[in-house]
Amino acid sequence: LSAPFQLARFCPGFADIAPVPLSDRPTPVRAEPGLARALGLGALLVKREDLSSRVYGGAKVRNLEFLLGAAERAGARGVVTLGAAGSHHVLTTAIFARARGLAVRAVLFPQPSTREVEENARILPALGVEVWCLRSLLAVPWAWWRARRRPLGGALPHVIAPGGTSPLGVLGAAEAFLEVVTLLEAGEVPRPECVVVPAGSGGTLAGILAGRALVASDLEVIGVRVVPRVVVGPLRVRRQARRALALLEALGAPALVPAAPGWISDAAGPGYARPTDEADRWTRVTQAEAGFRAETTYTGKALAALARPALRGRRVLFWNTFSAVDPVLPTVPHRIRGA
Length: 339
Ligand SMILES: Cc1ncc(COP(=O)(O)O)c(C=O)c1O
Prior knowledge:
Number of helices: 10
Number of strands: 10
Bound molecules: pyridoxal-5'-phosphate
Structural class: alpha/beta
Low-confidence stretches: none
Largest sheet: 6 strands, mixed
Radius of gyration: 19 Å
Oligomer: single chain
Shape: globular
């Protein structure tokens, strides 16, 4: 059973955005001395967002607690979202929306071939997702416009932003940050100096910055850009955090200003989902030293960034965003609400 949402303590109107419980909250924080040594860090803690669900974990489950809560409150019969062909966000949305009886439409744009691309090609149709596979990135604006306006299950679908990154969606990571603060305050884990997070759409990082502002934490929060520069940057992330805090303020939380994130921008390699030798190497070392898996699009590149001279000797909390488990799919088709 999941713990109550801690965000409720900060906003009297929290019930208005009632998230649905999907994750095993709180996720643990574990010390990894072997991997810390290999990376040259003073200490390494890992926020195990990979363990957020036994069905399919990862950081995106958090966003969906809020986003599917909103869809259900709006009486939606289906949801539509957008992502790269190998998107974990799209896969996570499909799994949890279908489990809650919602139809799903997914608009997918091409990316380099990875294990995730094959996984999505196999699993999304098996879940009954209406998949729109685009041939080019150029087709995205028109397809995304149409996908939001074409009925699904007899009504217009509820829109879930790419990456689940909206002011509401990023509250999932804010909640997860509050869990870290609870452990620190109880003295259950040693205090890190900084939190390091892979930044794709930047939503996880924005949510952490919002959570940090809520509790007036002085932990430094650092994003590792793993996508091209045009997709994400520290200013955009800070704006996302500001919008999330504005949403909470409308629910009665105090008015707060998020800090700017620290930023590592040279770990993305040749492009989105193109592995780097470093990411490959640190994915293998992580498995050997700490026993959790990484992939080379997001977490592998962020782990590789931990080995950079700028972080040498520092006490780091790494935000592990990639599911520890392959998706566990139901053996019977899900019921579609209203079908
Ligand atoms: C495993 C993993 N890590 C990190 C990210 C990036 O998170 P965000 O889009 O919140 O920046 C993603 C995004 O899909 C992801 O799948």
